[in-house]
Amino acid sequence: MYRFILLIYTFLYSIFIIFLLPKEYLKRPKELRNRWLREKFGFFTEKNSNLKPKIWFHAVSVGEVIAVSSLIKKLSQEYEILLSTITDTGQKVAAQRFKDCSVTIIYLPFDIPSVIERTIKNFNPKALILTETELWPNLIWIASKDFPVILINGRLSDKSFSGYKKLKFFMKTIIGKLTLICVQNESYRDRFIRLGADMEKLHVTGNLKFDIELEKINFEWENAIPKPVILAGSTHYPEEELILEVFLKLKLKGTLLLAPRHPERFEEVRILIEKKISNIKRKIYFFKLSEFSSKLKDDYDAYIILIDKIGILGSLYRICDIAIIGGSFIPHGGQNPLEPAYWTKPIICGPHMNNFPFIEEFAKEKACLIIDKASLPETIKKLISDSEFSHNLGKKAYEILKRNSGAAEKTLKLLNNLIKDR
After folding, report:
1. Cys-Cys with 156: which of 30, 115, 161, 419 at CB 3.0–4.6 Å?
2. Domains of the chain
């Protein structure tokens, strides 16, 4: 029965790929297109070196790459690492983070049996480590025949759990193929059990995203821009317009850093900013970070900087006075608030943070502000005018971050015990 459902899944998935392929191919920069296409179908220029055993990690995008960074760096001392991502931004961040490690970075191949088999044959990994909710049926089914398949930093959102319950028989078989399941908390552990997971395979290890390590980058312009500095990170449409309008309405003598989540939107946001400031009588100095000139103009009322570079957002939070979390003022689910917490910065979130349920702990302990759109101007004014209030928000956020760290060490111990026994 399961194999029949798997055949149906593969058929429907393949049809979906046929329709999606042209759009996905063309949306990528020209220099990436051919490589992306080859690797999605399991054709690689890299071959397995056989110098050291290889472990295959899969992390969807930037957040997951950052979350598994410490694990990969430690394991790369003993193993060769194959790291797959789905997004281009995930590729770029991975390339930056692991440039000094024994890590091969690829796009995750399509979840089609022949493609998965070709990939496994090419790299011959010793284990496959998936992150969070990356439960690809064919990948797990085929890989589990030859080596352990492990889920780390596992989570099941309300939406995912509700959907999986409707396919419990199918999901129980997929989850049953996992050798080890490391989940973020007891609630997720209970959900995996209710989907049929073996309790002996389940371990609550905590959230790897609390174990972040961010590089301190000294930006040559950071001391020249006017304060306060407001950083809106990983924004989605139409959040940039909302935040721009608030910044201009407040008439602050400061700096707004806008960092869109997706690089393909950089040009769109540039046009938006230029349109918004074109009719403003105040002198607003706008530039893209990629076109930064060392000669900053100091006779302007305020600065707006479009962050059109990848992989530096976590480090940029260090220089801000207020952090606004993108993806939270629309029904997207929010982006990671832990990077500003790492630098003890006051955090503002919109009402849609369901991708990060731990934000409830932050809100309960008054370590962040969860507000609606209408409250954004007054909230920013409050943080600017009350430095003690602002400082305490950032301090409490950092304390929660440190209190919840340690997942990487627990996960690494379980991985080492399992992999070395094979």
Report:
1. 161
2. 25-206+406-419 (3.40.50.11720), 229-403 (3.40.50.2000)
Bridge partners of residue 304, in order along the sequence: 256, 286
Q: Is 419 a residue whose pLDDT tops 90? A: no
Q: What value does the mean pLDDT of the chain take? A: 94
Runs of H (alpha helix) within 132-177: 137-143, 158-165, 168-176
Alpha-carbon distance of 411 to 215, in angstroms, equals 23
Q: Report the DSSP beta bridge partners of residue 84.
A: 58, 106
| Contact present, 142 and 120 (Cβ < 8 Å) | yes
* Helices within 179-285 (DSSP H only): 186-194, 239-250, 266-277
pLDDT by residue (tens digit) across 287-299? 999 988 766 777 7
CA angle 238, 244, 247 (to 5 degrees): 145
Return d(Cα 197, Cα 268) in angstroms, integer.
45
Taking CA 70 as the corner, what is the angle to CA 107 and CA 205, rounded to the nearest 5 degrees?
Answer: 100
Residue 378 DSSP code: H
- Predicted confidence band at 126 (pLDDT cuts at 50, 70, 90)? very high
pLDDT band at 422 (very low <50, low <70, confident <90, very high): low
Q: Any idea which residues carry the catalytic annotation?
A: 64
CB contact at 8 A, 276 and 245: yes
